[in-house]
Design a protein that fits this description.
With about 350 residues, the chain is mainly alpha-helical. It folds into two domains: about 10-210, no CATH class; about 220-355, no CATH class. It is about 50% helix and about 10% strand. The chain contains 14 helices and nine strands. The protein has helices at about 10-25, 40-60, 80-85, 100-120, 120-125, 150-155, 165-195, 205-210, 220-235, 275-280, 285-290, 295-305, 315-325, 335-350, and strands spanning about 35-40, 95-100, 135-140, 145-150, 160-165, 250-255, 270, 285, 355. The chain has a three-stranded antiparallel beta sheet with strand order 1-5-3. A two-stranded antiparallel sheet has the order 2-4. The protein has a two-stranded antiparallel ribbon with strand order 6-7. The longest helix has about 30 residues, at about 165-195. It is globular, with a radius of gyration of 22 Å.
């Protein structure tokens, strides 16, 4: 299916990769009581689908021979278009909680994705003798709830995707090998589509946009950068303005990992160990605390990442910010800070993350 099936779009690859991600990280949501097939919540598949396609559409990577941006994509309707400016791919994770306009956009986008999956790749991925390989059972979907929790019960309201048991087991056991093959074929298709449009796609853009949004809690790279900045001319805690030493230096997740797991460069800040481990801990900086630290935060971003043009860091910083922060457009530190403030407000409102206020 990956290498030999005819493809008029990337949708077959999108469906298979969405299933791979479900098999690798969300197998507990699956109903596997039947012998011949397992039933995967269609909402989970649609959620993974959105997480895969959001960064691709944001970076204008073609998914059909003729589409540009979001135009020409069957699932890119009102709901999906709302997500482009409001929600990051990493924010669309099982367990996420949303209210207001974002809840409506996500509900609509999931419905549109589920409809596209049913009508397109599920319909056209067939056995040689006929019949769907991955048939869909559509659910009875109502209006968007006022508080949308991306949990198992909600994702099951969209219906189910039936996956042959042997295929599901192969994905669970071999996702680490299957997914790179999917990514390579997907990248090849996008390059072919771009050539037909007389465009060139940068390998770096493709690689970044194709990355799955789950982060790792790894601060070693940023700690090394902080030590280098410290040795070059000194470094101060972004929250207290205290001078740091190698013994007092800690790397703080500005938005706490417990609430929103993200180890993007912009989210990792140099802080005093006492502040990070005892005072702030797993809390969200208040709006006033964030604004008081603006100069030190943007100065850190510039010194550690944006001014190091001889390294991949400026591109990595901008690409990660574009992928994970809503309403992000340029590569300036000030623009990223504005997007951070918006994301801080949404985390506090949507997930009720407790705040921490560093008194001046």
């Amino acid at each position: 299916m990956i290498l030999n099936d005819q493809k008029s779009a990337t949708y077959k690859l999108g469906l298979l990769r969405a299933l791979c991600r479900a098999a690798d990280g969300s197998a507990g949501l699956v109903n596997d009581q039947a012998d011949d097939f397992v039933r995967v919540p269609l909402g989970l598949v649609a959620l993974n689908w959105l997480r895969l396609y959001l960064p691709l559409v944001r970076d204008d990577l073609p998914q059909t021979p003729t589409n540009r941006g979001s135009s020409g994509l069957g699932f890119a309707k009102e709901g999906f278009l709302g997500l482009l400016s409001e929600v990051s791919a990493s924010g669309l994770r099982v367990g996420g909680r949303f209210t207001g306009s974002r809840a409506k956009s996500i509900h609509a986008a999931l419905r549109e994705a589920a409809q596209t999956i049913d009508r397109m790749p599920s319909t056209f991925m067939t056995y040689p003798t006929g019949g769907r390989i991955l048939p869909v059972e559509r659910g009875r979907l109502g209006l968007a709830p006022p508080i949308l929790n991306l949990d198992a019960d909600y994702l099951r309201t969209f219906g189910w995707l039936q996956v042959p048991t042997h295929l599901w087991r192969a994905m669970r056991r071999n996702a680490a090998w299957i997914e790179p093959t999917l990514i390579a074929e997907w990248a090849r298709l996008m390059r072919d589509y771009a050539r037909g449009q007389e465009r060139h796609l940068a390998d770096e853009t493709i690689t970044t946009s194709m990355q799955w949004a789950d982060p790792e809690r790894d601060v070693s790279q940023v700690r090394q950068l902080a030590v280098a900045v410290l040795e070059e001319g000194g470094l101060r805690c972004v929250w207290t303005d205290q001078p740091l030493t190698p013994k007092t230096l800690d790397i703080d997740h500005m938005f706490p990992w417990a609430a929103w797991p993200c180890s993007d460069l912009w989210n990792l800040l140099p802080a005093h160990r006492l502040v990070n481990q005892r005072l702030k801990r797993d809390r969200l900086p208040s709006a006033s605390t964030l604004f008081r630290g603006q100069g030190r935060i943007t100065g850190w971003w510039e010194d550690a990442y944006l001014r190091r043009a001889e390294t991949p860091l400026p591109t990595q910083f901008v690409q990660e910010a574009r992928a994970s922060l809503p309403a992000f457009s340029t590569g300036t530190a000030g623009d990223v800070f504005s997007a951070v403030c918006l994301q801080r407000m949404r985390l506090h409102h949507d997930q009720q993350v407790p705040e921490w206020d560093m008194k001046p």
